[in-house]
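Technical annex, item 7. During the second reporting period the consortium partners agreed on a shared format for inverse folding records so that results from different sites could be compared directly. Each record opens with the tokenized structure and is followed by the designed sequence. A conforming record, contributed by the partner at site C, is shown below for reference.
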């Protein structure tokens, strides 16, 4: 089947680095602490473990860790980087970009454009698109881009969103497409909404849970309908081996796929088969990281690319509250099969420590005190 998508032979993902923090909590432990039936968190929301940062460790450490891994894998020199963009909604300063904190640690300075992007969980995807389009425009003059999506997702203690917390970072070198190619065309949709926001000075976000689900579902439908265009959904999706989503928590993704099935006029069985075959298997790492906000989609894409044969196609649906969304089409290249980043994730998961209820309470108390 042919389509109108174009994949530039010289630009794509050259390397991927994923970094998870050294602590986590089983959501069943959190349920016990909060006096909630654990099935609500595991079956009701689809969560398993939430990654947590120890005191003194945060969004910059995650970003730097992921970047170092991507750079080591790439094998190029920092001298060859002409663009550094960090997408995040865990900004540490209203003025100084997160990229400056990261650049300091990486020793990146000189003839380089460096900045931060913010659009809730969509910020990392915006960073990636800008890097891709910077390369394709010719402005890059052959230089590579380092794109990082990094976040720490925390809600107020006892907030209903608490079991969906998480943390993580994904860094990607945008240069020659050794690991994956990205279609030049993408499918975006945005509408202003107050579904999830964090006013200046507030430590935790405010969420209109039902509205955020409605916005997320609408965004999914709008983006995928653009991909389908005047073809049938079956034809448009026939080439895909996996479809990744931004994962606030897995149940939300399942509901969005349900909406997609309705809009495609699929039978419940067809929708379920699409979810179980193409979507659910891409969320194993998300179930261990929890919501990584900007990193969430890219954690799923990193997992979906790992071990993939060259030429296989992946959908990547990005959503950020406020709201903005975009569907990207990614094709695995020769370097996806070896996937060194998958070993690093396995190592992070093996070496991290699960905290007890008391430790979690202490950790949250320390963070709250630091924020005051
Ligand atoms: N056993 C099994 N299932 C159970 C259960 C039990 N004992 N008890 C409850 N459940 C199920 C419920 O039936 C429900 O499932 P369905 O939705 O399929 O009906 C599910 O568990 C959740 O239950 P509730 O709706 O009662 O939960 P709640 O009111 O406590 O809300 C929440 C929890 C859905 C996580 C809510 O806090 C919320 O909406 N949070 C925010 C959502 C969110 O993350 N929005 C942002 C999206 S985008 C993003 O990531 C932000 C960004 O851009 C920065």
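Designed sequence (site C submission):
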């Amino acid at each position: 089947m042919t389509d109108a998508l174009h994949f530039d032979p010289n630009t794509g993902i050259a390397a991927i680095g994923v970094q998870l923090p050294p602590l986590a909590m089983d959501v069943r432990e959190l349920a016990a602490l909060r006096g909630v039936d654990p099935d609500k968190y595991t079956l009701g929301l689809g969560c398993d473990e939430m990654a947590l940062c120890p005191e003194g460790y945060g969004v910059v450490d995650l970003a730097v860790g992921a970047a170092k891994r991507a750079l080591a894998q790439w094998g190029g020199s920092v001298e060859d980087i002409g663009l550094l963009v960090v997408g995040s909604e865990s900004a540490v300063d209203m003025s100084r970009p997160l990229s400056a904190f990261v650049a300091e640690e990486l020793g990146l300075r000189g003839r380089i454009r460096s900045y931060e992007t913010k659009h809730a969980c969509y910020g990392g995807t915006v960073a990636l698109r800008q890097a891709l389009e910077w390369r394709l425009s010719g402005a890059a003059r052959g230089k590579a881009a380092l794109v990082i999506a990094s976040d720490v997702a925390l809600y107020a203690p006892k907030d209903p969103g608490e079991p969906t917390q998480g943390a993580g970072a994904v860094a990607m070198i945008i240069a020659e497409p050794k690991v994956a190619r990205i279609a030049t065309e993408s499918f975006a949709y945005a509408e202003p909404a107050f579904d999830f926001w964090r006013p200046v000075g507030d430590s935790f976000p405010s969420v209109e849970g039902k509205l955020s689900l409605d916005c997320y579902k609408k965004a999914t439908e709008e983006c995928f309908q653009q991909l389908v265009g005047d073809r049938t959904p079956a034809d448009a999706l026939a080439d895909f081996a996996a479809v990744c989503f931004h994962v606030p928590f897995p149940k939300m993704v399942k509901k969005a796929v349900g909406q997609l099935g309705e809009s495609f006029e699929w039978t419940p069985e067809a929708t379920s088969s699409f979810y179980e075959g193409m979507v659910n298997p891409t969320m194993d790492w998300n179930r261990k990281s929890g919501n990584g906000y900007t990193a969430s989609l890219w954690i799923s894409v990193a997992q979906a690319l790992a071990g993939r044969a060259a030429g296989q196609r992946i959908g990547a649906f990005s959503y950020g509250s406020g709201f903005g969304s975009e569907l990207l089409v990614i094709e695995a290249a020769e370097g996806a099969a070896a996937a060194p980043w998958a070993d690093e994730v396995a190592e992070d998961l093996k070496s991290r420590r699960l905290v007890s209820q008391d430790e979690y309470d202490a950790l949250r108390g320390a963070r709250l005190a630091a924020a005051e």
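The mean pLDDT is 96. The CA atoms of residues 190 and 324 lie 4 Å apart. All partners now use this format for quarterly exchanges.
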